[in-house]
Each structure stands twice: as structure tokens, then as C-alpha cells.
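Second attempt. The first submission of Thoeris protein ThsB TIR-like domain-containing protein had a stray character pasted in from the spreadsheet, which I only caught after the job came back as garbage. Lesson logged: always re-copy from the clean sequence file. Corrected sequence (126 aa) follows.
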Amino acid sequence: MINVFIPHRWNYNDYEVISALLDRTKYKVRDYSVPSTSPFDSIDSRYNVDPQIKRQIRYASVVVCSNRPANSNGISIEEIKFAVAIGKPVVAIKITASTASDLISMNIPVISNRKDSLENWIRQNV
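This time the job returned cleanly.
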């Protein structure tokens, strides 16, 4: 069993793509993400990352995000930075041709949007 957090923006389908990819792997997955079907009632904007989301990231054994350049803007990049700061393994799935500059600067590995690529990365990093 691996615990996963997927940082994402609501206006893209990255969460669904990554979640479906995780479902195809050989791993049992417990998802600690915040899907649009079950958002938190309130987010405290005084923080870069809301304490509720920090708790979800702490529960995760791995953080899986998309490489989408839009991740450099908004709260998803702050969630990724928080995960890196507390030592969580983070990987980006190649969903778009271009990769977010913040992911590149943080040396987040970008892997193919393939089941075997994700399984290999998990085996080596979790």
C-alpha cells in the first residue's frame, strides 16, 4: 500500500489522468489528494499551504504531480515545495510537452505517462 498526494489545479484533468495511471499500477493506492468532488469547506489563505492540505501531504508516502507549466502558478507549486521541504519523494508525470520551470529548478524527475515508468519510479523511491 502506498499513500499518494496529487497536487493539481481544478481547471485541468491532471488529477483524473494521474489517478487513472496509479489505478493501473500493481500497487494498492490510498489517495490523500483533495478531489473536486470532496473539497475542504474552507482554505486559510493566510498560509502558502493550508494546514489541512499539509496534513494530507504528511500522510502521503509519495507526491505525484503533472509536469504542466501551469503548476508554476498557484497553490499546487506551493504544495510541491512543501512536500520537498519535508522530504517526500516527488515525481512529475509528463502530461504536456513543456515542463513547469519550478519543477525543473527543484530537480523533480519527469517520467513518461506510462504504468511501467511510474511503477519503476515508485519501486526505486518509496
